[in-house]
Write a structure and sequence with these properties.
single chain; three-stranded mixed sheet; 8 helices; 10 strands; elongated
Length: about 220
């Protein structure tokens, strides 16, 4: 299987901070990027947004608007989940890539990352999604794996999808087959099931109808 680092792109050179606004505007007209990396003396300083450049005075240089440069980036060693988070958090269709010495080495395009994700077992394989929640100091990744596998399930992937000081939510993808047994096991280990499932929907419908019937009979 290909690794995400194989999608590092260098089709276009980073923008120099000394470049004129006219040239930068023309670049964004030609290339449909939301942002693009900016270098100063070959050192990465951040990204400039296409929307911001549209408002800049054409006769000035990008260095005159240095304060608008945004400092997000990823490392070449980061996992695809962390890379995807940077895309989402910055509402960008590209992210710059730095090595461990902070040297700029290229950028990822969101289309390439999506292409990569479509080939991962987490998205490619048929399975079911369970989202569980537990106190931050009580959950265990090894326990989650044990719960899935002890019910003859195969774990395709899991990640922390939401976290607060008190609670943590974990999204789990498993092969189909023993979903109900796995859900019940999570409950026995005091995990709250945040996602809805057919079995739970059925029970909720029965509960709602029972409550309605009780209300009707007590009128």
């Amino acid at each position: 299987m290909r690794t995400l680092s194989e999608y590092i792109n260098n089709d276009f050179k980073p923008i120099d901070i000394k470049e004129t606004i006219e040239v930068v505007q023309d670049f964004f007209i030609e290339i449909a990027y939301s942002h693009f990396p900016v270098l100063e003396n070959d050192i990465f300083i951040g990204c400039i947004a296409a929307e911001d450049v549209e408002t800049f005075e054409i006769q000035k240089k990008l260095s005159d608007y240095r304060y608008t440069v945004e400092g997000f980036f990823v490392r070449a060693s980061m996992s695809w989940l962390d890379v995807l988070e940077v895309f989402a958090r910055n509402n960008s269709n590209i992210v710059p890539i730095l090595d461990d010495t902070n040297k700029y080495i290229g950028y990822y395009e969101i289309t390439d990352v999506v292409k990569f994700l479509n080939g991962t077992p987490f998205l490619k394989e048929v399975g079911g999604i369970i989202i569980v929640e537990k106190n931050s100091n009580e959950y265990s990744m090894s326990q989650i794996t044990q719960i899935v596998e002890s019910n003859n399930g195969k774990l395709l992937g899991l990640f922390i999808s939401e976290a607060t000081n008190d609670k943590i939510q974990i999204t789990i993808k498993i092969t189909l087959g023993s979903m109900n047994e796995i859900i019940q096991s999570f409950r026995r280990y005091n995990y709250e099931i945040v996602s809805e499932h057919n079995e739970d929907n059925y029970l909720n419908i029965l509960k709602e109808r029972s409550e309605y019937l009780d209300k009707y009979l007590n009128m």
